[in-house]
Protein 1
Amino acid sequence: MRTDKRHSRPGRTAAVALAAAAAVLTASACSGGGGGSDQEVVLEGVDDGTTLTMWTRAATEAQSQALVDEYNAAHENQVELTVVPTDDYQTRVGTAAGNQELPDLFAIDVVFAPRFTTAGSYLDLTDRIGALDFKDALAPSHIDVGTVDDRQYLVPHTLDLSVLFYNKDLYEQAGLDPEAPPTTLAEFAEHASAISELGDDTHGTFFGGNCGGCFVFTWWPTLWAEGQEPLNEDGTAANLATPEAQELYSTYRGLVEDGAVAPGHQEETGATWVSLFPEGNIGVMPMPSTMLGLMPEDLNMGVAPIPGLTGGESTFVGGDSIGIAQNSEYPNQAWDFLRWSLEEEQQVELLAANGDVMARTDLADNEYYAENPDAVLMNDLVAVGRTPYSLGFGQTFNDPQGPFLPLIREAVYGDAGADLAELNDAVTASLNS
Amino acid sequence: MRHSRKLVGAAYAAPVALFVAVFFVAPLLLVGRMSASDWPLLSGDMGVNFPANYESIGDNPLFWPAVGFTLKYTGIVVVILLGLSLLLALIVADGGRRGTGFFRTAYFLPTTLGFASASLLFFGFYSPSIGPLDPLLQWIGLTDEPVSWLGTSGMALFSTVVLVVWKFAGFFMIILLVGLQAIPPDVYEAARLDGASRWQSFLHVTLPLLRPALGLVLILSVTGSLLAFDQFFILTKGGPDNSTVTVVQLIYREAFQRFDLGAAAAISVVVLVALLVFNIAQFRALRRDA
């Protein structure tokens, strides 16, 4: 509740105020536009002691901060990193873009990127990316989503994949083979059911039942692995009522009905869905790969690809892409940071060393991954994984009032066998609005 | 002489007038202009399209349910807050009793907490995985199974009302307390001499004399509830199944999920006009009876 107290007096004060306000408005209307740089393009970047500003969201702060600290230590240029709370990030960047107040460099959750690339918020990097000798190794799905009309605007920054996490101790207790994670969705359900039999405080699995973004991130890979396309290529039509999709929903629906899902799934908005597994009482669930480095030391767990209905594997290649603001005055200096951050040494020493997934697919053979098979598995998935593209992605899938959540909730919690065609049409309509 | 007095008066008022102009009137005009324009968040003003933004309000399937829910929520919260804060004020009004200071402070304390922080605190309380409420209730033996505090539309509304009442009852109590203390003791004495019972003197002395304070509480709580946002944004995100979407959440959604400032501004203007009418009606009603 807000307790605003606003008084305004009629008469002369108001007239004065109106005049003043009109003046302010006229002034602000005239100050838009502008910005941009007339620098000549230097493909390898420039390191001349420029101070660059950069924004990222809290979810990927650790990786960004490590890169920035290392860069600042070894370069004349200095990057000033501002970290914005994840939930506010799109709002903040959107507002800044409208006001031409973007920083030189800003990362963006890759699924929201098309909104910003098509609106002209990012600088065209096609030539600069083309000059990199490792350009073909950059996470392909990130590059695809950052491309508009064959022009490339973004490079991958931090990668966050959806993978199955499973608790080996619970697998053993339930009489399952701890070295044989599920290879089909049916097996996944069997394992989850078996583990939920272990006791009241042990649960088979968990998911964010009131979180549209979580469903896309953790459930769509099953469809992709099955050769399905839940979203068409140009992001204008949804395909979420197919028999395969129905089977996916009904499998999870069955787990809910059997009580194999930890309590709280129905109201989980996505704020705390990853906090259950590390407690050690969840059997198997799909989660973000960035959680791997945050697992307790004593948790005996493994990682596996998300399987399709009948086999195969896929992943949602999420995380942040990064680019240079269209109105940045220092694109060459900003590119110096981006190019440097993608080089082998930084990718291996700063990301692989920490168990993170790298932005490149050609560096998996490194000393740190040799001792970390889970990281190798995740890094290899980057090549086969997908990043869905749609201009209306956020307002359709992430918005809690968007049309995707009602479809999923009807399928999982509503009437069994409900007809989803109409709800699917609503999703398609939102993608095009 | 008169003339210069007027000038001095204007000079005194000028800083406030400037403040109001820059921080209230100017944004208001800007919102008005946005509401009549095609104004995407990312690309800025694309020209006038009046009245497209206003027409699209009615087409939004979430709008009328949100209006209905906001009014329902406001009704519930205002009745409970008014009753409870009056009760609290009456309990702690007598400063002479032992422990009064403690209880006044205790009731007022939630007010000092930020609203977002309070919402997050309750989000933790209600969480099925980390919340202490369920284990506590089960230990006492009141419930057998975990309660889904935010999982159904009824419980989500109930849980949010509990938060809001906890957060604001103390604040409104203080307003009413000041009102109570302004009532001179001799009025009560006269009532007692006339043979009025405690209940009669409450009904015929306290309530009428408390009217200005009650009016203030009413207007603040009605306006605040109609503008509800933070608590639902944090606790329910409008769920489950869009059952707790308030009007202000729709504004936020248009602006920052759908990136359409024009549509957001149009709803804002409608809400502003509705609030204005509502408050004028309330002022009139309160003044007429006084």
Protein 2
Amino acid sequence: MTELLARFAPGLQEWLVLCAVLYAIGLYGLLTRRNAIALLMAAEIMLNAAALNFVVLNRFTSPQLVDGHVMALFVVVLAAAEIVVGMAIVVALYRIRNTVDISHMNYMKG
Amino acid sequence: MDGASGWMMQHAWLIPALPLASFAIVGLLVSPVSKRAAGIVATLAIMASAACAYLLAWEYFTLYPPGGKHPILVPWSYEWLRYQPGLSVNVGVLVDPISVLLLIVVTTVSSLVHIYSNAYMHGDHGFGRYFTFLNLFTFSMLGLVVAPDIIQMYVCWELVGVSSFLLIGFYYMKPSAVSAAKKAFIVTRFADLGFLVGVILLSYFGFRLFPEWSAEVGAATNGLAGTQPVDFAYLNHPAFLARFSELHVAFLGTSMLTLAMILVYMGAAGKSAMFPLHIWLPDAMEGPTPVSALIHAATMVVAGVYLVARLFPAFAYSETAALVVMVVGAFTSLFAAIIGTTQDDIKRVLAFSTLSQLGYMMLALGVCTTEYAAGYTASMFHLFTHAFFKALLFLGAGAVIHAVHTNSIWEMGGLAKKMPITHITFLIATLAISGIWPFAGFFSKDEILVSALAGGHPLVFGVAFVVAGLTAFYMFRIYFVTFWGHGRGEGAAHAHEAPAVMWLPMALLAVLSSVTGFIPMGEFVSLGEHEAHHGINLAIAIPATAVALLGMGTAAFLYIGDGRRAKSAALAMGGAYHVIKQKFYIDELYLFITHRIIFHYIARPIAWFDRHMVDGGVNASGWVTRTSGRVLSFMQTGQVQTYGIWFTGGVAFVILILWCALL
């Protein structure tokens, strides 16, 4: 079983493709979803794709170091902070406008 | 340069500097505090300047006694603008017989007019302003007189123009004074355009020919060290003139010298109000009368004559230019004398008389050549004597106007008894201008007539001769109408003698008008070879006096009494009288040319071009910016996601480019 698993163990390329796919999914969500909370979630997916990228490259290029892991931890912390602020904004917006649909949020229209 | 000694010679800059300092002090400090003090300070400054001028004249003629050779000195100069090595413009003081002569004339007349104005302008609104401007004018005029180079001359030339403008428009609440000031300024500025082009031509070619010339005449060893290409010493030098006249203007077929001189003469003609640029001078009489006496009779208007005299070698070198000077001068003197016989405003008659006498001075310069330079002396002599008697006539007219409150001679009359001193001084000035022995005008007019005839211009002599008769006629006409007979107006009945502050300067000028004729001017002012003073040429003096007496007699015949004879004479002349009275419709002609032709065919299209092309271009660029802004603003949806798409697209595009570049 472990052998089988070892035989099909994903290499660097597979991992990077996974990262890219995750990132693309996040970007797509960010550009298309109307719901502000969904946007935050999409941004979260993109952050995680980036963090995963750090870990993968650390693992395959210099396994004896932990720089990438440290970076990934930073990203996680940052994402937590970001989601707090983002949620606060969304809640504040909801209180004012009774909706979280960002297609209505066009005060900056020229 | 060399040989300049004596304290005053070294400090000759004081003569123009005193009025300048007084101009600033009176204008800024004294005038706001006390009007009375402003008049006194201004007058004292000019009198100090006059004392300096007399001292300078005394030193100069002690050093170079009359009858000897009179060098041109530049005892003081200061480098003002340095363009490059070999080309700089100096300000300085030039001392030679004619500048000394003018210094004396300007400071004397100016101080007398200042004294007179203290009474004449008394209680006038703007008393302090008046004296400030009068000081400014005196400074500018003195700066012009002592200019050693043509640039300083030009700067002071414009300064006298602007102070004349300010003083003509002194009563700025009066629309006629404002338009007269504008007219004077525009006409003289138009003439100065020619002068400026002439100055540019002279200095440009002067600078180009300068190195050659320096080498040729050995400037460094010849006492000409430090001469600059704009200095009169250089511009009048025969070696320069010879080279300059060899240059030809391709399209006119004349020499560059002639062109430059005619352009310079255009400026001189504007300032000295020669035909056809004379139209501003009669209107300039809107200014206060003492101003007319100082600026528009004795000093500023002779600046043109002085300029021609200053550049005389250059004018004489170009025969065409000298011919233009002569013809314009002779024509103006006749033309103005004819108009002068019909005017009703006492000051306007005097203005036309000034024009006529300026024409005299110009024609005297025009008839003389470097070989026979008697006209030069005669012109300067007439300038000298004319300044005194014409200033006196104006001051007398001012006293009369002050007494009767009108300018029209037909509302005066019978003033001889009421204003005895004014009457006597005015009579002396009238005799002087008419050329009756022993008054000053007789001698200078005689010299002009002699020089015209001996210079080989019988026609010019004839014109000058006729003008002498006309002068006597129109002067005695206003004399008889103003002072004889019975008072015709309300003002004339209540007229009284002017105060002493006014009649004292007049009395002094009357003395000068009586005695200056006996100065042997040829001993002081002469050009090149000194000529012996040939005394009075009886063959000319007797007919000239006869024609003056004839003019005088005609005036007496027509205007003593009730003036019925004058009316019938005017009727007998019919249409001609009317044309002359309207000054040959020159003003109307000017109006026609400016309004109908220049405004209509030149100014309007230019205005249209300005409004539609220039402004249109500016407006179009505004329109393009605004419209493109409006179009581009549609891209600003305010949707974060739209911006995100653009941003993502941009990043993708950059990556694509990098990709292509790297692979």
